[in-house]
Amino acid sequence: MLHTLSIGELGESLSSRRLSSVELTRHFLARIERLNPALNALITLTGDRALAAAAAADARRASGEKGPLLGIPLIHKDIFCTDGVRTSCGSRMLDNFVSPYDATVVTRLKAAGAVMLGKANMDEFAMGSSNETSYYGPVKNPWDLTKVPGGSSGGSAAAMAARLAAYTTGTDTGGSIRQPAALTGVTGIKPTYGRVSRYGMIAFASSLDQAGVFARSAADAAVVLQAMAGFDPKDSTSIDAPVPDYHASLNAPLAGLKIGLLREFFEGLEARNAALIHDALKIYRSLGAETVEVSLPHLPMSVPTYYVVAPAECSSNLSRFDGVRFGYRCSEPKDLLDLYTRSRGEGFGAEVKRRIMTGTYVLSAGYFDAYYLKAQKVRRLITDDFRAAFAQVDLLIGPTTPTPAFAIGAKIDDPVTMYLNDIYTIGANLAGLPAMSLPCGFVDELPMGLQLIGPHFSEAKLLNAAHRFQESTDWHRRSPRGYE
Amino acid sequence: MSLTRQDVAKIAHLARLSITEQEMPVYVTSLSSIVNFVDELSRAQTGDVLPMAHPLDGQHQRLRADEVSESDNREKYQSNAPQVQAGLYVVPRVIE
Amino acid sequence: MMSNWEVVIGLEIHAQLATKSKIFSGSATAYGAPPNSQANLVDLAYPGVLPVLNAEAVRMAVKFGLSIGAEVARRSVFARKNYFYPDLPKGYQISQYELPVVKQGKLAVMLEDGTVKVVGVTRAHLEEDAGKSLHEGLAHASGIDLNRAGTPLLEIVSEPDMRSAKEAVAYMKKIHTLVRYLEICDGNMQEGSFRCDANVSVRPRGREKFGTRAEIKNLNSFRFVEKAINYEVARQIELIECGGSVVQETRLYDSDKDETRSMRSKEEANDYRYFPDPDLLPVHIDESFIDAVRATLPELPDDKAARFSQEFSLSAYDAGVLSASRELGAYFEAVVVQMGPAHAKLAANWVMGELSSALNRDNVDIAVSRVSPAQLKGLLTRIVDQTISGKIAKEVFDAMWSEGKAADAIIEAKGLKQITDTGAIEGVIDAVIAANPKQLADYRSGKDKLFGFFVGQVMKATEGKANPAQLNELLKAKLGGSA
User: Whose CB has fewer CB within 10 Å in chain A, the N or C terminal residue?
Assistant: First the structure.
């Protein structure tokens, strides 16, 4: 079955002409047509464009061009601007918005010959941990349709788990790639802040947002990240440093690798979940790695820190949605104030409004020092903790989430409980570190994720460690029933 | 610390968000619980720690050469606009 | 009226920097383009776009800092100033708040009475301009043009050092001169390239504590600055003297009514929620950057004026006028270089006099003056060598201005060459005396004033060409009867 093949295998079939990109694209489009209605993972389908892009990729292959992603279908999270295609960011605010330009991630993947099948559902403006805040309705978890797929890149994760594309893109501000990857049993990587351009990625929290990949495996993720990563002069926060060959180092031996077990991640973790992480550690030790326990004393502060910094930045980032130049405008505004308040009040959903108000509050006169400035100081303490840890170990390891996927509706009315889902993932965003989640077993027949966090620009090492783990396990090969 | 209706109304106005009567109590409750939650930060000993605004702390802004790289794309860009007239974005009268 | 009150004024001057492209995008900054034709995705705040800082804007800010002896910040930070307004597409303005690029500096300003006042410059920071709201032709609506959005601005903030509207204007003019010298701003006030906000307060004379201030927004001419401040001062004094008190607020100057009024749109207390812009990193300016900018600094107005008075023995006033713009100074020097410093005063008089008034009258830029420095030198040389008189020279200048020809060609064609032949002048004097016996008798009987009548008659007969000094001497002798 074509959807069970790796990117490498698909590439071989394409280059040997046993398969055309058009056939492959048709296969995925048919799967989407059949499986998406129950999942709601895609909110915009671009079948005609996809077939045209596939035909163009086939022509490029025929003219001798090679490339690991040439003609391989993907789904973009609907946070990436796509020229001529609706880019909604999961919001009523942008329900009518057709982007006039491509995000740099989209441009780079297009240049590599990628074939976009459609745009993935997501939490509104990437604010959510369950994909329930989308204007287009919740995404269902393919492992259990009554459960959430996680968020905010829930559509991308569910689409990957259901094998609706060879890979999907996502963004991660506080865990929005790793958490849904864990909850849907796929591999996800959030690179170092600045490794992948943010240009054209609709901003949630600018100092935390980073684009990344969902894939079947670390090896596939390496191929995709290779194409996405690199300097972009349009993004002042993009790093101008060479991108290493991620594929070349996948099989490097792990002997002597020092892995730090994050003590704070195990406090209060349910025994069955902790057991899966300890099983993973055994595998790493068997591969020659050394494991030690390390402590990041300020890590427990990461959630309150994040819920000051991210809303503060979002409250400002989302001010541009004012009903004047694009997006939703309320009907018959009676004056300017009415135009603003109703366009924004009606165009944004409840969680987005809540975050904008939280951010407005923590930046406002009289509260700035106690919240925003304080959070920035704690952010440094957390970053320093990581730095100290990486002086002792090469990688940190722990669970991605405290629990497997929860029921749709279970936490949506209690924001603080919902926010605590991100407790293990937020630290890497605050410090700008690369991190991955990979499938490591099941609890109650739902997948769980193992999280690896590395120092800045250690993507090659993370992918290497993940790949070696996946060579010794088959969790990442499991598919939910009905999606095999 | 809990927020009052007045607090929420003031924040909503600063953020230019209309909040309906039905929504108001929900926001008062949830924003209060969020503020209480983030109040935990006050327990952190931050002393003379410098604030960190960005993960690329210590790096510098790159400068762009002063070159005009854009041409007129008004028609394309205004195709998303709710209301335009004679090339202008139209809004209710601005009173200065 | 103001004797019991002291006026305190501080200015925030906004100078649009003369970059080709915008501060954070590659859009053109040219004035007068069709609405929104120079507003790209970044300027329009499209979802997903990001700012990248224009190097030239930073260089220009540093250049200004060096010119006022200010410290240039090695690290400065862009912050977001959050507020909603239709001409502000992002809902925040990128500006510098806690850490501006230029720190404390100062400027010597010459006042009308010739005294020099030193005005402190608190800081200067980089920020982006907003767009424009237009109201004409739209019923109950406004139209937004974002061409100006993102144009780089240098906001120059003064200390509250000025004590009168005239002082404020003198300071603003000095900054205006400076930014044009530095070629960092075209200084065009009609187009809004150079404008200011004035913070005005009054306090009882002798009191240290400042009064409550009002901020008058968007003054775009020197005249308006003076009138708006004077109106505002009178308003505040009257208010206080009638038992009221000044409220801190933003006011707008209405030049038609010559009054300031409270701005409704800014009525509510602002809470700008400044925080560092996470899309931009701190700007780092090192020694080599500063040195490179320093190397491009031109001679500054004060230095040029000092040099003019020293090298050419000009008065402080003349030196000040001639150094008020780089182009004027260059023109003057070009003339002097060709004629020699001995004739500097003559050149100064002509540049400040005939040339400047002709340029003003026809609204011509000195860079494209119809009389070039070489041509003016040609004219002045003929005064010096007595070929023509100063009076005839003005006539020649007018002809040069309108016909674009050299002085000698005009003198030749019009036969304006001065008569210096003693015999020829004597001949004319004799004829005039012979024709006016009555006036001669009156003069000789003591009516000295008639001397002028005879001069006039001789000049009339020679079409003004008689050498005035020779004429005086010869006429005096003849009328005295010695002939």
Answer: N
Under the banding of pLDDT at 50, 70 and 90, the label for residue C161 is: very high
Contact between A152 and A176 under an 8 Å Cβ cutoff? The reply is yes
Integer Cα distance of C436 and C428 in angstroms: 13
**Element (DSSP H or E) covering residue A484:** none
Q: Quick: pLDDT tens for A414-454.
A: 888 888 888 999 999 999 999 999 999 999 999 999 999 99
Tokens of A313: 């930045």
Neighbours of B24 (CB within 10 A): 14
- CA-nearest of A142, A14, A120 to A74 is A120
CATH code for the domain of B32: 1.10.20
Amino acid in the structure at residue C72: V
| Cα dihedral sign, C397-C403-C408-C412 | negative
Distance from CA of B30 to the nearest CA of A (A): 7
Alpha carbon distance C262, C300 (integer Å) = 39
May I ask the CATH architecture of the domain C422-479?
A: Orthogonal Bundle (1.10)
Number of domains chain B contains: 1
Alpha carbon C96 to chain centroid, angstroms: 28
At residue A91, the pLDDT reads 98
Alpha-carbon gap, residue C333 to A49, rounded angstroms? 68
Angle, alpha carbons C53-C59-C63 (nearest 5°)? 150
Question: In what side-by-side order are the strands of the sheet with A258-262?
Answer: A42-45, A115-120, A73-77, A167-172, A210-215, A187-190, A435-443, A446-453, A395-399, A258-262, A290-294
- All residues of chain C having their beta carbon less than 8 Å from the beta carbon of residue A326 are 46-47
Chain C residues near residue B95 by CB distance under 8 angstroms? 264-265
Q: Find the helix or strand (DSSP H, E) in which A40 lies.
A: none
CA distance C225 to C219: 6
Report if residue B27 sits inside a domain.
yes
Instruction: Check if A63 contacts C (Cβ < 8 Å).
Output: no
Which of the pair, A335 or C405, is modelled with greater confidence? A335
- What CATH number should be reported for the domain holding residue A233? 3.90.1300.10
Q: Is A328 a domain residue?
A: no
Residues in contact with A24: Cβ distance below 8 Å, sequence separation at least 6, in sequence order:
A2, A10, A14, A54, A71, A72, A73
Give the minimum alpha-carbon distance from C87 to chain A in angstroms, rounded to a whole number: 10
**What are the DSSP calls for B1-17, one per residue?**
----HHHHHHHHHHTT-
Give me the interface pTM, i.e. the ipTM: 0.97
In contact, C177 and C149? CB cutoff 8 Å = no
The residues of A assigned a catalytic role are: 77, 152, 176
Contact A320 C47 (CB under 8 A): yes
User: In angstroms, rounded to a whole number, what is the distance separating the alpha carbons of residues A107 and A84?
Assistant: 13
pLDDT tens across C366-416, in order? 988 999 999 999 999 989 888 888 888 999 999 999 988 888 888 888 877
User: What residues make up the domain containing A9?
Assistant: 2-253+435-477
**What's the mean per-residue pLDDT of chain C?**
92
Q: Where in the sequence is the domain holding B21, given as residue range(s)?
A: 5-42
DSSP 3-state of A174: coil
Quote the tokens at residue A368: 């700035």
Q: Is C440 helix (H, G, I), strand (E, B) or coil?
A: helix
Q: What is the rounded CA–CA span in Å between residue A395 and residue A391?
A: 10
User: Rounded to 5 degrees, what are φ and ψ at A20?
Assistant: -110, 160
Determine the Cα angle at B18 with ends B13 and B19, to 5°.
105
Residue A453 lies inside a defined structural domain of this protein:
yes
Which is higher by pLDDT, A168 or C425?
A: A168
Has residue A51 been placed in a domain? yes
Neighboring chain A residues of C92 at a CB cutoff of 8 Å: 316, 319
Q: Is residue B61 part of a domain?
A: no
The verdict on residue A98 lying in a domain is yes
